[in-house]
């Protein structure tokens, strides 16, 4: 449950960044991938 919540928060954060800064879809995907990766990395610990 915590993992899902954190990933959703990460997705929202990425969406906010995408809305704030006009970027290409590939860039926003990279941001989202980084966020999700960091969340997963944190959950592994």
Brief synopsis:
By secondary structure, the protein is an all-alpha fold. The chain has two helices and no strands. It has one domain (2-44).
Describe the overall structure.
The protein has one domain (2-44). It has 2 helices and no strands. The protein has helices at 2-20, 25-44. Helix 1 runs antiparallel to helix 2 (25-44). The longest helix is centred in the C-terminal third of the chain and has 20 residues, at 25-44. The protein is globular, with a radius of gyration of 11 Å.
Report the count of strand segments: 0
Span between N and C termini?
Answer: 16 Å
**Tell me, what's the shape?**
globular
- The whole-angstrom Rg is 11 Å
Please, how many domains? 1
Task: State which percent range the strand residues make up.
Answer: under 5%
Q: Report the structural category.
A: mainly alpha
The low-pLDDT segments are: none
Count of alpha/pi helices: 2
For the largest beta-sheet, the strand count, sense and barrel status come to: none
Keywords: Plasmid
How are the secondary structure elements laid out?
Elements: H1 2-20, H2 25-44
List keywords for this structure.
45 residues; plasmid; mainly alpha
